[in-house]
Amino acid sequence: MNEGTTPGGLAHRLLGLNAWLLFLFFYAPIVLLIVFSFNDNNNVGIWTEASFRWYGEMFQDDRVMGALRNSLVVALFATIVSTVLGTMLAIALERYRFRGRGTLDGIAYLPIIIPDVTMAVMLLIFFFQAFGILDDLLGIHLTSGLMTITLAHIAFCISFVAVVVRARLSQLDSSLEEAAADLYANRWQAFRKVTLPLIAPGVAGGALLALTLSLDDVVVTQFVSGAGSTTLPVYVFGLVRRGVTPLINAVSTVMLVASMVLVAISLGFQRGAEARGQRLADPEALLEEFSTD
Amino acid sequence: MAVSEIPPTPPPGSSPLPPPGPPISKPETAAPVTPELEKASRRAEARRGLFIALPSFVYLVLLFVVPLLLVFVYSFATRDATGQTVLEGWNLDSYRRLFSAEVLEIFVRSFLLATVTTAICLALAYPFAFYIATRGPRMRNILLVLVMIPFWSNFLVRTYAWRVILGSEGPLSQISQALGGEPFRLLFTNVAVLIGLVYGFMPFMVLPLYAALERMDWRLVEAARDLYADGWTAFRKVTLPLSMPGVVAGSILVFIPSLGAYVTPALLGGARTVLMGDYIVSQFLAARNWPFGSALSFAVMFVMLVATIFYFRAGAKTL
Amino acid sequence: MRRLSRLIAPLMVLALFVAACGGDEGAEEPDGTSAEGGESPEGATGASCALDEVDGDLNLYNWSEYLDPELVTAFEEQYAVDVVEDFYESNEALLAQMQAGAVYDLIVPSDYMVGIMIQNGLLAPVNDEAVPNLSNLLARFTELPYDPGPEYSAAYQYGTTGLGVNVSVVGEDFPRSWALIFDPELTADFPGGVSVLNDPREAMGAALKYLGYSLNDTDLEHLQEATDTISGNIEHIATFDSDQYDEALVAGEVAVSHGYSGNMIIGIGEAENPDDYEYILPEEGATLWIDNMAVPANAEHPCTAFTFMNYILDAGNGATLTNWNYYGTPNEAAMEGVDQEVLDFYAPTFEAEGLEIIEDTGDYEINFTDYLAQAKG
């Protein structure tokens, strides 16, 4: 970023201060959460002494590990599918005029507006009816499980991804894309080489949001789950009723560390990609280069 | 709903590029453009748009619109003595109940809380996103990920940690005592609810704002600073309008879940006042009154829809 | 829930899309079930199981932290089946799932919910021949208003809803009454205030008991009085909480906490100073609740379920269960093996007067939710 364009002096320092205070705000409970995962007491709120007891119990607890696995499987599929569908939706709504666009525009935002318990109840009724009809007409016998949870998560994640990507697209200069369309042989190439890198931060933001939503959802998941498909948040929600043990803190800590490792790896990849050439990182420079010919 | 209807206005005289028009058509082609050709190309564009939208469209119709219609049907049904929803004896009772003073009061209260939450989130997240967006590319990515990481732990565990922080034995109270003050407790107060909501929904504000600001053409800001002497005017006239889509998207993403929130108010606020989310949940679960729960949900969605549309209109005007 | 297929014809067309889209994914579901339909209320499930017969893995739907994992492992080894556990945290969520056709082999609904499920044809009758250990149950747990017989259920564990008191701040000679959470003059002196269950039936029920009514009372005027009782002390009710009431008590956030017996005894046991706390049943009477094992009408492996039911009702296993979850055991034969501490804790339950089981009040039920909302203001 060009130094001259950022506000200088006092304003700049205030911005920095605000940012670091907010990080403190974000991480204060996280630090506490991690500290208490080493608490030997059965009760999270009461500190006795430090131990790795809960980490040991966690890896031996089949129910926790099973729930964790279910959560990760659902989150992975839901994030991938909803990111692809949500991005396509955002592009179609933002860049094209077609019949039914207005309707789709409205529908696309409703999943965000709906209270989650309503979403849960309506999907419960829906799967019940749909399975009944399938059973009656085709003799296909389906029950709720990881599949229904994933389908439900995708249904609400699509909209969140679309909103974030669209915020990005709406202020993208479409002339860049037009120029790209002139440069490249086909639209797919133009999309892949120019539009996609330009909207990448929006797509990444949307994917992160989808992942977060999927990993944290309790209400919808609980209503559309079936035998053997308890996810981690649902398991934790049940545990809370009978008292929170530091076991859950240990699980959360492990998930935090795992996600940090994943992120570090992907940041490493990104650096590698940048090193390989400016093409991916800066499509605008690329275009300018071409247009001066 | 009409995000795209906000005219993307580049600041006067500063844009080196022509104003973007939605369809990616190429006006300056070498061949003379006949009306037929133009029409055909527009039709091809429309087909392509529909094609791109189709997968999501089908998905949302199947797994959202159809289920939504089912609940809509339920909102006119009746609750039988065992709490089952009976799909006969259709009536408007559930909708009539919406206008009782009690329900309206709950609604107004939730609406205010959501508004305040959104305002605080926006006030904190805007400079924050601005700060992140003005770092170098690598630092930007790292900071953005640092924002998200806390939210990959478990929601309930995070909220529980807040209970400890805000409780009478928590670090805040201990700091106050160490400084010679009284022990105090924020837990079970409205402030605690606000803190919890702002904390929980902050990423929903930061992400779209960042996405908007990161894309900013800083040459425009520079030009504006040349035009208007002080930075504040430049910000108000250029940066803010350009980032408006992010502001709108972020506000909606925060406002809506705040309006329906019930776990945070219960855990941190002690559920001492009834909010909309709590009320809807209790209709579906405690009272097993699905028709009324469905009607309440529809009312909430309707109001949010109207509010969002107004917000968009207002947003469009400030541009 | 009734099928809508005849009501909304176009829905069927749309549902066919589900077949197209979700068909192959569904085929991967590893449940290898027979083609028999999901829900047939009078399925032949009850009759045909022999003692110790297993007909597949057990899909168990239970409250969380309610079943000792070691009991599960032992059962799996003894009968060479897998036990798949899932968890719910409210009777109503369980009911919604069962009405929507969820397939489980064994569920653990509470008293009033057993009654509702029987009325809706969701439960299969218990096969007495496959569950001879039913005879281990105390007589008082076999004469139940919600399931006379009992025909469809077998008691799992029971408990009461009472008050956890922090004696070190309330003082030794406190009244053993609901006044501890409802009397404004008394509670005004409690540092941190009190905690009340955020459950319409329990909160309104406690207030009704305080006023001398039954907690199943269906007189709106009485309910209004109960509402006024709660709103009259709203200032000193720090929180309405159904989850963390025990932690709030032992962490010193509240002085008196309304909650369920088992959690309270565990919470108090883990406090820094357990002697500072006491769990009491108010003299006006309180809620007695009983959780029950039941086999859903659409269970796929009912014989394994009955075998598991019999396994839990065994004397030794019943004692292990109780020593693990600290709830009361309805199993007379198991009492011998139960820790004295737990026996002492539940002994008053047998003498206490005015204990009542929550019953479903039918159409009146919605009033509890509305009046609690009103009480909070």
Model description:
The complex is a heterotrimer of chains A (about 290), B (about 325) and C (about 375). By secondary structure, chain A is mainly α. Chain A has a domain at about 70-245: MetI-like fold, CATH 1.10.3720. In chain A, about 80% of the residues lie in helices and about 0% in strands. Chain A is built from 13 helices and no strands. In chain A, helix 7 (about 175-185) packs across helix 8. Mean pLDDT of chain A is about 80; it is low at about 1-5 and about 275-293. By secondary structure, chain B is mostly helical. Chain B is built from 12 helices and 2 strands, in the order H-E-E-H-H-H-H-H-H-H-H-H-H-H. Chain B has a two-stranded antiparallel ribbon. Chain B starts with about 35 loop residues before the first helix and ends with a helix. The model of chain B is unreliable at about 1-30 (pLDDT under 50). By secondary structure, chain C is of the alpha/beta class. Chain C folds into 2 domains: about 45-160 and about 290-345, D-Maltodextrin-Binding Protein, domain 2 (3-Layer(aba) Sandwich), CATH 3.40.190.10; about 160-290 and about 355-375, Periplasmic binding protein-like II (D-Maltodextrin-Binding Protein, domain 2, 3-Layer(aba) Sandwich). In chain C, the strands form 2 sheets. In chain C, strands 4, 5, 6, 7, 8, 9 and 10 form a 7-stranded mixed β-sheet that branches. Mean pLDDT of chain C is about 85; it is low at about 1-45. The chains are: A mainly alpha (about 290), B mainly alpha (about 325), C alpha/beta (about 375). Chains in contact: A-B, A-C, B-C. At the A-B interface, helix 1, helix 3, helix 4, helix 5 and helix 6 of A face helix 1, helix 3, helix 4, helix 5 and helix 7 of B.
What's the gist of this structure?
The complex is a heterotrimer of chains A (293), B (319) and C (377). Chain B has 319 residues and is mainly α.
Topology:
The complex is a heterotrimer of chains A (293), B (319) and C (377).
Chain A: H1 9-36, H2 53-60, H3 62-95, H4 101-113, H5 116-138, H6 146-169, H7 174-183, H8 187-216, H9 219-224, H10 232-241, H11 246-276, H12 278-281, H13 283-291
Helix pairs in contact in A: 2-11, 3-6, 3-8, 3-10, 4-6, 6-8, 7-8, 7-13
Chain B: H1 35-74, E1 78-79, E2 85-86, H2 93-97, H3 101-133, H4 137-148, H5 155-166, H6 171-178, H7 190-214, H8 218-227, H9 231-260, H10 263-269, H11 276-284, H12 290-318
Antiparallel strand pairs in B: 1-2
Helix pairs in contact in B: 3-7, 3-9, 5-10, 7-9, 7-10, 8-9, 9-12, 11-12
Chain C: H1 9-27, E1 58-63, H2 69-79, E2 83-88, H3 91-99, E3 106-107, H4 111-119, E4 123-124, E5 153-166, H5 167-170, H6 179-182, H7 184-187, E6 194-196, H8 200-210, H9 220-232, E7 237-240, H10 245-250, E8 256-260, H11 261-269, E9 277-280, E10 287-296, H12 302-312, H13 315-325, H14 340-351, H15 365-376
Parallel strand pairs in C: 1-2, 1-3, 6-7, 6-8
Antiparallel strand pairs in C: 4-10, 5-8, 5-9, 5-10
